[in-house]
Amino acid sequence: MSPTQHENGALHSGGSLSAANDGSRPLLVRRLPGLRDYLPTLEGMREFTDLRGPDTPDELWLLEHPPVFTLGQAGREEHLLDPGPIPVIKVDRGGQVTYHGPGQLVVYILLDLRRAGLGVKRLVGLLEQAVIDLLATLEVAAERRADAPGVYVAGAKVASLGLRIRNGCSYHGLALNVSLDLDPFGRINPCGYPGLAVTRVSDLVPDVSMPEIEAGLVRLLAASLGMTATPRAV
């Protein structure tokens, strides 16, 4: 299952893993405090995407959610094995089922792909590579898989991706397991793959901190997009 759900047709993809921007365009970065409920955040992304114009700056939203399972638009409910008390929300991204919870860094990518000169596959590649490069700075070898989008360490998934493209603009994004409780992944087939192992950065680099991960990932994402990360107040 592709991690991307499209509207209004597919965008052209291809080329190297770098964007065409020259670094002069700002990438506004919002760090949303606390644990952000999933549905209001989703509605906020949709509203931002629907109301943005050709000159609206692109944004990254960094946050953590309370425990929740999300099921992609074409997701199959048989991959929900035993959700128990954790709520399940059907969403409009591509992909199957995943888990979000405290200790997982969620990065929502609100990007005008046409203006950035990016296709969907290229954007997915940039997001995966940014995580791979981040982990490399921590001396952790990670890789992507052609058959299962995301980032993996020794076969275990450490980051998931899922995007929605509407009117040439993206929302949703990536989720990196930093220090979250991994037990809820046992209640699902993660990303639709029975028995898929998952891991977290804190098991690979015990002294890692969330601020360190956030700062490194923002720096790498902005560089890969050819943009300048600019903090923005919430």
Automatic annotation (TrEMBL):
Coiled coil: none annotated. The active site is at C191. Pathway: Protein modification; protein lipoylation via endogenous pathway; protein N(6)-(lipoyl)lysine from octanoyl-[acyl-carrier-protein]: step 1/2. The record marks K157 as: Lowers pKa of active site Cys. It catalyses: octanoyl-[ACP] + L-lysyl-[protein] = N(6)-octanoyl-L-lysyl-[protein] + holo-[ACP] + H(+). Keywords: Acyltransferase, Cytoplasm, Transferase. One of its GO terms (cellular component) is cytoplasm. Pfam families: LplA-B_cat. Residues 54-229 form the BPL/LPL catalytic domain. It is an enzyme of class 2 (transferase). It is found in: Cytoplasm. Its main location: cytoplasm. Its EC number is 2.3.1.181. GO terms for molecular function: lipoyl(octanoyl) transferase activity. Residues 1-23 are annotated as: Disordered. Substrate binds at R93, G94, G95, Q96, V97, T98, Y99, H100, S160, L161, G162, G173, L174, A175. The keyword Transferase applies. GO terms for biological process: protein lipoylation. PANTHER family: LIPOYLTRANSFERASE 2, MITOCHONDRIAL-RELATED, OCTANOYLTRANSFERASE. In the reaction, the free carboxyl group of octanoic acid is attached via an amide linkage to the epsilon-amino group of a specific lysine residue of lipoyl domains of lipoate-dependent enzymes. Catalyzes the transfer of endogenously produced octanoic acid from octanoyl-acyl-carrier-protein onto the lipoyl domains of lipoate-dependent enzymes. Lipoyl-ACP can also act as a substrate although octanoyl-ACP is likely to be the physiological substrate. NCBIfam families: lipB, PRK14342.1. Belongs to the LipB family. This is Octanoyltransferase. It comes from Thiocapsa rosea. The gene is lipB.
